[in-house]
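INTERNAL AUDIT FORM
Audit reference: QA-55
Scope: verify that the stored structure record matches its stored sequence.
Auditor: D.O.
Record contents follow.
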Amino acid sequence: MTHSVIRRLLPVAAASLVLLSACSGGGSDGSEAKAGATPSATQTAPPVDPEQVACKLLTASDRSELAGSAVDDVVAASGADGSSQCRWQAASALIQVTTLPAKEWAKSLPDVVKQLESSTDVSSAADKKDLATAKKLLAGAATFTDDQACDAFTTLAELGGDDEGTRTTVTSIPITETESGISGQTCSGGELTSVLYSVPGLEQTDAVNKTVSTILDRAQKRLAEKG
């Protein structure tokens, strides 16, 4: 069973935590900045801390593998409370990794379901049924343990059409009106980790999905080693 509304739930929840405003904010003329643009000086991202956990999860080789060229400049990012987030940018590329306890991520899910319920493009009986199932599953999300949150991640991914027992999802998400990115999320060991990247002309393909999944797996293994 693959319905678009459930396919959107996990990446939308991840995007709400990685806070893309710092890389897609409005320019001085009111237009949206491109994904690779320097964050606006008026934004309030915290100082760059290249020593934080998230910045240790992707190597230079990982980033080059994703973007097809070097992306090594660490820039300010503003992740959700309780998360560690690192962002690298080049002239026309962006890579961002965020990690946080799965139970903290789960707290955002009921609000994401509400957003999807009110969306004008959610009208089919199948979508409404799947959202009702998700709402029931997430009724106690505010008090989930980290393990329960990862179990919910897997159940939602399965509802969206992923393989049984999956711990990783990869989805295309909009960044600006003209730019899109590929967002991958994985949940294991009680930690939710998300990798987002954008380069010009990026399209989601099986090869892209495989690369993102591989990079996520490496990042999660490094996170477990640090724990």
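Auditor finding: record pair retrieved intact. Residues 19-43 have pLDDT under 50 and may be disordered.
Action required: none
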